[in-house]
Backbone:
């Protein structure tokens, strides 16, 4: 959600909800929580004809939080990748496919 707000400061909670796959109410609640935590600021468009239009701006605190969340996500995905790679290796070994892949690789380099 913070990535979406950072990429498009004019995004609506309805659009956030659609992209994230949650209800509009949940998106509104989440954006409000981010504002209360000081991760984003809400600003009115200065030249907007309707004052219902807002800009979302990540605060320095929000940028740090987004970076930490991104790092944790990346670490979790790397761990999942390593575990999946090991499981594939075990299954290939169990089926005797590991030797075929190694011989394919050695002949293709010749």
Residues:
């Amino acid at each position: 959600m913070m990535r979406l707000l950072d990429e498009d400061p004019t995004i609506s909670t309805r659009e956030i909800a659609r992209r994230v796959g949650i209800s509009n109410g949940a998106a509104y609640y989440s954006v409000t929580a981010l504002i209360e935590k000081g991760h984003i600021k809400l600003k009115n468009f200065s030249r907007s004809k309707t004052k219902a239009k807002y800009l979302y701006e990540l605060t320095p605190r929000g940028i740090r939080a987004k970076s930490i969340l991104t790092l944790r996500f990346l670490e979790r995905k790397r761990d999942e990748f390593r575990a999946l790679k090991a499981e594939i290796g075990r299954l290939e070994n169990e089926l005797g496919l590991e030797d075929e892949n190694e011989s394919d690789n050695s002949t293709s380099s010749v």
